[in-house]
Amino acid sequence: MNAVVADAIVVGAGIVGAACADALAADGMRVMVLDSAFAGGGTTAAGMGHLVAMDDSEPQLALTSWSNRLWQERSRTLPPACEMDPCGTLWIAEDEGQIPAVEEKRARYAGHGIAAEAVDAAGLAKLEPNLRPGLAGALRVPGDSVLYPPAAARALLESALGRGAELREGVEVRAIGPKEVETSEGAFRAPVVVNAAGARAAALTAGLPIVPRKGHLVITDRYPGFCRHQIVELGYLASAHTMTSESVAFNVQPRATGQLLIGSSRELAGWDAAVNPRIVSRMLDRAVAFLPGLAGLSAIRTWTGFRPATPDKLPLIGRWNGVDGLWVAAGHEGLGITTSLGTARLLADLVAGRSPGIDPRPFDPNRAAAAAVA
Amino acid sequence: MTGADRVPIVVDGRPVEAEPGTTVAAALVNAGIAAFRTSVAGAPRGPLCAMGICHECRVTIDGAAHRRSCLVEVAPGMRVDTRG
C-alpha cells in the first residue's frame, strides 16, 4: 500500500487543474498537482484567452457569467504577465436579418445581470473602423476581457503553491484508480483525485464523453490599434454548437502586444495536430470578409490545439460514480479559460459538501450515462 | 553620384537619396542608419540575413507596417519609417 501523499491529487495543470488546485488549497486541503509535461502547456497554451459570457444554453450562461465575475474579483491580483485586457466583445450582425438575434441576446444577458448594448451600423463603424462597411450592427458586451492563458494558469498555480500545494511537472499519470493514481514516478494515494486532464481526460477515465475537437489559430505581427475589441460573428455559436466534421467562424482578438489572434475552426480529426491549409484558408477568408485590411498584414505563426468537447457543450464537473474518490473537472471545449474559475469554485463546493454558487446538476459528469439508462 | 541618377525617398521625415535598383535596407545602411526598428523589449534592431528570412529589417513603408526592407526596391517618393 502506497502512502497517502495529499488530501487531493489534481491530474493536469492546465488552467482548469490550476484553478481547482487553488480552490481546494484555499479550503485548507493539501493538494498535489501532476502534469505529464508542464503547467499550462496543453490546450491552455493553444487557445485564445477570451473571458466571455456565452449563451449557447442557460447553464453555459450561468457558468460563464459567474466565472467572469470571479475573474473580475481576481483581476486586481493577477500579475502583468497575464496581460488581462478588458476590451469587451462585439458580436457582429452581418445583415438586418440578424438584428433580432442581437436584441434576443441582449435580453438574455440582461436576465443574468450582464451589461450589453446594441450598436447600430454607424456606431459599429466608429468602434471598429477596420470592419467592412455594410455590416448591420453588433451587440457590445463591455464586461468581457482577454488574457494570456499560460500565464494565467501559472498565476493560479502560484497562488495554490502559496497555500501549500505541490506541483510536479513531467510526471505522467498512466491510470486513475480508487483514491489512487499510477504515474511514471510510481503510485500516489489521496482520498480525493480530480481528473482535470482536459482533452485527454477520457483516456484516464473510461466512459467520460470527451473527444478532441481540433482548432486552428493564426497570429499576426504587431499592429497596435487595428482593432480594439474581441470581435466575433453572431454565427459563432452555430459553428460551436453543431458537432459537424468541420466548421469555421470569424473571431479576431487584439493582444496586449499589438498582435492579432485570428480564429476560429472546429474539426473532428482525432489527434492529428498538423496544420490543415485548407481550413486555415477558409478561416482567413472568413476573417478578411469582416476585416478586409487583415489581408495586408503579416501572419507570423499558425498552430493547432484540441478542445475537450462534450456532446452537450457543457463541462463535466463533480463526482464520478464509477471510481471511488474520483472527481472530474474536464470537457470545457473552447471555454475553459473563462470557466476555469467557476469550475474550480463549484468543484470545491461539492468536495466540501457546501451549497454551490450555481446549480451543479447540468454539469454532473454522470449525466450522459444517466440519460442513456433513462 | 548625385542628382538625376539618385532615387529620392523620405526616411523618418528626412530626405534620403538612394541608388537606383537598391533595396530599402541597402538605402538605409548607405545613409548610415543602423537601427531599423525597436524590439518588444526596446532594443534597436537591424538587418541580418538580407534575404527575407530573419524579419529583423522590418520597417513601415508607405504606411504599411512590418515590411521586410531587404525585399523591397526603392521607388521615388517612398516614405520609410524606422520608428515602429
Can you put this structure into words, describing what you see?
The complex is a heterodimer of chains A (374) and B (84). Chain A has 374 residues and is of the alpha/beta class. Chain A has two domains: 8-47 and 149-210 and 312-373, FAD/NAD(P)-binding domain; 86-143 and 211-309, D-Amino Acid Oxidase, subunit A, domain 2 (D-Amino Acid Oxidase, Chain A, domain 2, 2-Layer Sandwich). Chain A has eleven helices and 19 strands. The radius of gyration of chain A is 20 Å and the shape is globular. Chain B has one domain (3-81): 2Fe-2S iron-sulphur cluster binding domain, sarcosine oxidase, alpha subunit, N-terminal domain (Ubiquitin-like (UB roll)), CATH 3.10.20. Chain B has one helix at 24-30, and strands at 7-11, 14-18, 37-38, 44-45, 58-61, 64-68, 79-81. The mean pLDDT of chain B is 93. Classes of the chains: A alpha/beta (374), B mainly beta (84). The A-B interface holds A 221-223, 257, 296-298, 300 and B 40, 55, 58, 64-66.
The CATH topology label of chain B is Ubiquitin-like (UB roll)
CATH architecture of the largest domain in chain A: 3-Layer(bba) Sandwich
Order of helices and strands of chain B: EEHEEEEE
What is the number of helical segments of chain A per DSSP (H or I, 4+ residues)? Answer: 11
The CATH architecture assignment of chain B turns out to be: Roll
Major sheet of chain B: 5 strands, mixed
Output mean pLDDT of chain B. Answer: 93
